[in-house]
Amino acid sequence: MTDTSPPIIFAPQRHEPLVDTFGRHISYLRVSVTDRCDFRCVYCMSEHMTFLPKRDLLTLEELDRVCSAFVDRGVRKLRITGGEPLVRRNIMWLFKSLSRHLDSGHLEELTLTTNGSQLGKYAADLAACGVRRVNVSIDSLDEQKFRTITRWGDLKVVMQGLDAAAKAGLKVKLNAVALKGVNEDEIETLVRFAHDRGADITFIEAMPMGDIGENRADQYLPLSIVRARLMNTFTLEDSPYRTGGPARYVTVRETGGRLGFITPMTHNFCESCNRVRLTCTGTLYMCLGQDDKADLREPLRAGVTDELLQQAIDQAIAAKPKGHDFIIDRRTSKPSVGRHMSVTGG
Ligand code: SAM
Ligand code: SF4
Fold it and tell me: How many C-beta neighbours within 10 Å does residue 320 have?
């Protein structure tokens, strides 16, 4: 007689979910897979950056193992970022490997933040790995200005990347850092451009992270000003839409599109923080705006199983700080945290 009962599947042991001492549930991991980049954006990096020696980086297999350990603890969303994530050699291997967690249903979303320079090459492969949404950073639609902001970037190539993403069926969200005296005259144009393409757009306040060789106060434009200016042209209607991130959204009645504001400087959003950030060397930062960190590389390499790694993750989450206190102070011009955004990946 043949057995027609369904096969018994033994699910791997799943550990306790991650909850910090303030009761915040950690369900989102951002992973900077490289600190390197093919751009040198003026608010992110100095012109002459010293990057980590390649030997200090976790291998792609190790990154996969750490990400999987977090998925095992109830992380539902993984964002791959950098530096520029798509310049890391063989990065598609990591996307392909992590896509198994989408297939199993343990992971809700696998996504990335990119400057778009390599999207023409990789958009179709990303879609094939189960990526549905990508964030693309574009701070200007003027070729000359785009080059000035990114120092090395070519807007035409990024535009081709956006087209490739659309063709591959990826939903795009645009990110733009609001920069005083640089792109403030383009804010409305950027909104119309995004919404004409069916993309959401989010503006970000420049954060004082890392030495960039210039005074941050010269760049910083509060989004309260951006919002007030947009209201001269558009009707902004509050939207309950959330992506699980810090952005607060409105709908622009005239375009029907969504517009987000990330305001770490003018509004602190820490009480609802659900995320932690892993660097490419295996350091876990528990807060974007604080120096609290935990080394996961040593416990990762010390054990054949993940028990030491899981213990280190527990200790790290227990030490997650309550929040950040970014200040841009014209007198000191010192960054609030010494590392660049490209280390922890935005
Ligand atoms: N290279 C990719 C990109 O540019 O999208 C991913 C990494 S980048 C560090 C992630 C995001 O952080 C980008 O949207 C970028 O504009 C933003 N960013 C970088 N430095 C920043 C800073 N000091 N303040 C605010 N946003 C920053
Ligand atoms: Fe590179 Fe992104 Fe930083 Fe620009 S913002 S330098 S693209 S990592």
Answer: 25
